[in-house]
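Protein modeling request. Please complete all fields; requests missing the sequence field cannot be processed.
Requester role: graduate student
Desired output: 3D structure, token encoding
Chains: 1
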Amino acid sequence: MKTLLLTIAIMSVSLMSNAQTKKQPTKMLRHAVLFKFKDSSTPEDIKRVEAAFRGLPSQIKEIKSLEWGTNNSPENLNQGFTHMFFLTFKSEADRAVYLPHPAHKAFGGVLGPHLDKVLVLDYWTEN
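Delivered output (127 residues):
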């Protein structure tokens, strides 16, 4: 019986130790931006907007990652939005640097003449 209790105690300590050493998932702040372009925008205009957005992480160090793509959903629920850019920040402070950053403002100058609508959602990842 003592051996059984000792084994259970050792296993409990081992499990608690493992639980404490496991890293908690890091929450990240996501910034999702969707664009609907004007009908008058040419494919070349849109390519310039894409390139300008893709260049932001090299100019704004607070951007931890960028993913982007164009809609290919068969559901036809996109309401005319065709492009999604998905930025990741470590903190709200990092996002606060990004929003007024001169490079972000310059991007707005490239985008502005071609933008019909924009939708932005920010959220903290839930793990």
